[in-house]
Amino acid sequence: MDVWDRMNNTKMKDLTIVILAAGEGKRMRSRQPKVLHPLCGRPLLAYGLRTARALADRIVVVVGPTADGVRAVAGEGVTVVEQRERLGTGHAVLQARPAGGEGTILVLPGDTPLLSGETLERLVRHHRSTGAVATVLTAVVDRPQGYGRILRQSGRVKRIVEDRDATDDQKKIVEINTSVYCLEAKRLWKALAEVKPDNDQGEYYLTDVIGILARAGGRIEAVAAPDPVEALGINDRKQLAALAAIQRRRILDRLMEAGVTILDPASTYIEDAVTIGPDSVVYPQVVLEGATAIGSECVVASGCHVTASRLGDRVRLKPYCVLTDSVVEDGAVLGPFCHLRPKSHVGAGAEIGNFIELKKARVGRKTKAHHVGYLGDAVIGDHVNIGAGTIFVNYDGAAKHQTVVGDGAFVGSNSSLVAPLTVGEGAYIAAGSVITKDVPADALVLERSPLVVKEGWAARRRATRAAKPKE
Ligand code: UD1
Ligand code: CA
Predict the structure, then answer these.
(1) pTM of the model
(2) In 3-state terms, what secondary structure has residue 364?
């Protein structure tokens, strides 16, 4: 049982998770809201949501105005509230009040994707067992610049000061605020009402709630993240790249632990949603993206770029294959240098070789197309042989048309099949033909001008040329 299943079985009671996702992300310098930027193929927000879903039933996501994309990622079973004006993290949490209700509130920032479910669970348990009004998840980091610092007095948390508001001495503190907090709802709403925007940014800071609660005599607890990496937030694209590198390595480790050989992890890019079966081998310089699922005992050679595709077992991708939104059945062999464009389907044991392009093409079992060609808008049966240089002429300048090739047919090299067209089962197309009419089953078709042979012509020509004096 993996950690997600385990936690699905032990959702925590009376817990509301509030995810803050309304920030503009100015430091990203992007038109896109920060939480939609992908990290190893998933939007940042999706990471927090996944962890939250495993932990609690009540999830509230605070989104900014014009955040349709964010709403879409939030998906079903999640309450979305809007923060119309971005007045700060404290103001953002306040928007969750009508939906947040009573009990314990766990606040998560939407830009801290590496937080683990275990750490959050530990935070909530600690919070409840100590009876604290607030518990902050902290981390001790080498470079605390940019983060809020934890100010303690006689060991107890007294307040949090933001980097830009901190004194030089406070800036030396290496214990930082992760922006993850466990709070008792009633006390939180009360304290939020007291927060004032008296800081460098003129915003309502959630961090100030900690000082307010402490001054009122409440017990503030802190739990340190076991691995400071979990606390890393993404504010700019350099941090996005740094965290992506960590997440990428985690994905590769997960796959290797599950029995996949990755010859050179340093040069392999595999996204979060990709699955690979045991005893498959991934060569250096491979990119596997989106919801790609690869079976067991497959080989993915160097230079392959696979997006949102499904490969069966024992599939072999020779170097430099590009596959998008396609399906490849068991034992098929592709490449080197073949291109499966969307909605292609290669049957079991089929061989699609050098410089073959498929588009919306269904290729049957054990069918072979080994050398150079374009097979677009096609339904090709089983045991078909497609000769070198075959072109399915699918476009007449206005519309696309389909070509159907029956089982066991033979298409000779350098043929053009002008669609719409049906080639019957077992038919034989002679090399170099341009086929414009349907071919009956078991027929031979050939379209060829008569061959002219002039005996001795070349020798005579050479002789006349040699006789001419050179200028
Ligand atoms: C925040 C904390 C800081 C902490 C750091 C950890 C505050 C004031 N500071 O700083 O102490 O060390 O996180 O990463 O809380 N958001 C909204 N509405 C807003 C503003 C922000 O929803 O009006 C959301 C953002 O989308 C983001 C999260 O809140 O997901 C944190 O905001 P951000 O601006 O990134 O805060 P930091 O400056 O990183
Ligand atoms: Ca942040």
Answers:
(1) 0.91
(2) coil
